[in-house]
Write a structure and sequence with these properties.
4 helices, 5-stranded antiparallel β-sheet, 189 residues, alpha+beta, Peptide Deformylase
């Protein structure tokens, strides 16, 4: 089932999310609905707060991305990068920060360059409640960091300069007022 995505300005997007337990009601159905919602909106990641749930859960599927060369010149293979992250915890972030243009399904039509560390180490449970500790770099790390920010109550625009934020203020106000059309269901303020 396709769920509506919460737009910029909804309080749930600024809350720090809570962990869930293995017996969280209808978890597999929720994960399935999140994937369907993300694909319908042409996204590569979706966090639970974006559908109104303040829980530590996000999904990622970067397989549709046409990867750009990474800072080290390599082309990253996104094949097979489809994952569910439950109760994740970033253990380390390192490597040089690098800029890349990001967007967000909750903040449509706005894209900005965000600087993020190149590598990370993360601990999480997958959809079968297997504990994982994995390392990622490049675009995979970026998608994870973007979605992880959502469960921490941080939006990608929180990483841009006050000057850049001022330049997009009118666009943000249009979202706050619900004065834009998108190709997927959204809930505005």
């Amino acid at each position: 089932m396709i769920l509506p995505i919460y737009a910029y300005g909804k309080p749930v997007l600024k809350e720090k999310s809570k962990e869930i337990s293995k017996d969280y009601p209808k978890l597999q159905e929720l994960i399935s609905n999140m994937y369907e919602t993300m694909y319908n909106a042409n996204g590569v990641g979706l966090a639970a707060p974006q559908i109104g749930l303040s829980i530590r859960l996000f999904i990622a599927d970067g397989q549709s991305m046409k990867p750009d060369p990474q800072p080290d010149g390599t082309i990253e293979n996104m094949e097979g990068f489809k994952k569910v992250f439950i109760n994740p915890l970033i253990l380390e972030q390192n490597g040089n920060k690098w800029g890349y243009e990001e967007g967000c399904l909750s903040i449509p039509y706005i894209r900005e360059v965000v600087e993020r560390p190149y590598k990370l180490k993360i601990q999480y449970y997958d959809e079968l409640w297997n504990l994982k500790i994995e390392e990622y770099q490049g675009l995979k790390a970026r998608i994870i960091q973007h979605e992880y920010d959502h469960i921490e109550g941080i939006l990608f625009i929180d990483h841009i300069s006050p000057f850049r934020k001022q330049l997009i203020r009118n666009k943000l106000n249009r979202i706050l007022q619900g004065k834009l059309e998108v190709d997927y269901p959204m809930i505005f303020k």
